[in-house]
User: Which sequence fits this backbone?
């Protein structure tokens, strides 16, 4: 078992629990979306190994994430 | 400690920052980009519609089961971790271990689908169907489309587990396994965007 992957998984679980608890307190939507963006980046970087690929793929997926999150924050 | 560090290094994927070819190959990553664009457009449409149907959205969100969605997020993230560990095991040549991780990931996929079906049944019991209103039409479209992706991923994981058992995937050649893992993680990525927008905002 890879310790780094286990640490990332535990961090993802912690962030998910935090967003669930924060949502009950009706925090700003941008905070919840920010947490989602962090989780998205961690899954793509560590589980999908994007951090070790060509920068093109990192920029492409990161750019799409930014467009979606910015669009949701702007529309919400 | 030293051995553990060595194990961690050996399970890490090779550095491909100089190559255009990502893990799993170009095609699967083009599919990932296409899926993120498609779901992204759906998510933006979902949020856009809230502007003219604020009361309907507020009412709709109250009828959603946030606890099940939270549990499903934990299940998918755990499945992603299992699959990443499975790929690491395969790269080390531990086929039995890789197969076990893959089956564990498959079971999390089945659990996700089961929880989602429970959620759909709860909606049906309240008389809420597809086409009920804008909120629930988009809710069923987005979560239903994602449900189909997880279903396909579960079948793929079954094929991968079988191919490891038969020796088709091994330490020297694991691109098919990587491609299947990328598809599985893509389901995580999409859910991580759907979950806050549909259930939490």
Assistant:
């Amino acid at each position: 078992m890879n310790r780094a992957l286990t640490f990332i998984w535990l961090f993802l679980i912690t962030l998910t629990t935090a967003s669930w608890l924060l949502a009950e307190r009706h925090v700003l939507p941008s905070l919840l979306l920010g947490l989602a963006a962090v989780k998205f980046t961690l899954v793509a970087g560590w589980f999908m190994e994007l951090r070790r690929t060509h920068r093109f793929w990192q920029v492409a997926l990161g750019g799409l994430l930014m467009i979606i999150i910015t669009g949701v924050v702007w529309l919400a | 400690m030293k051995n553990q560090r060595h194990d961690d290094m050996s399970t890490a994927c090779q550095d491909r920052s100089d190559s255009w070819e990502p893990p799993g190959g170009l095609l699967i990553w083009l599919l990932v980009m296409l899926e993120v664009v498609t779901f992204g457009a759906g998510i933006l449409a979902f949020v856009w519609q809230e502007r003219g149907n604020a009361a309907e959205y507020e009412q709709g969100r109250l009828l959603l089961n946030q606890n099940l969605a939270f549990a499903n997020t934990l299940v998918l993230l755990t499945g992603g971790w299992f699959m990443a560990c499975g790929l690491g095991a395969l790269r080390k040549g531990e086929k039995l271990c890789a197969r076990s991780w893959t089956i564990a990931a498959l079971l999390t996929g089945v659990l996700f689908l089961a929880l989602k079906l429970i959620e759909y049944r709860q909606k049906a019991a309240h008389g809420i169907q597809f086409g009920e209103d804008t909120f629930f039409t988009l809710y069923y479209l987005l979560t239903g489309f994602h449900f189909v992706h997880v279903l396909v991923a579960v079948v793929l994981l079954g094929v991968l587990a079988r191919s490891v058992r038969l020796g088709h995937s091994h330490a020297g050649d694991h691109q098919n396994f990587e491609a299947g893992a990328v598809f599985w993680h893509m389901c995580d990525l999409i859910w991580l965007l759907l979950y806050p927008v549909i259930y939490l905002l």
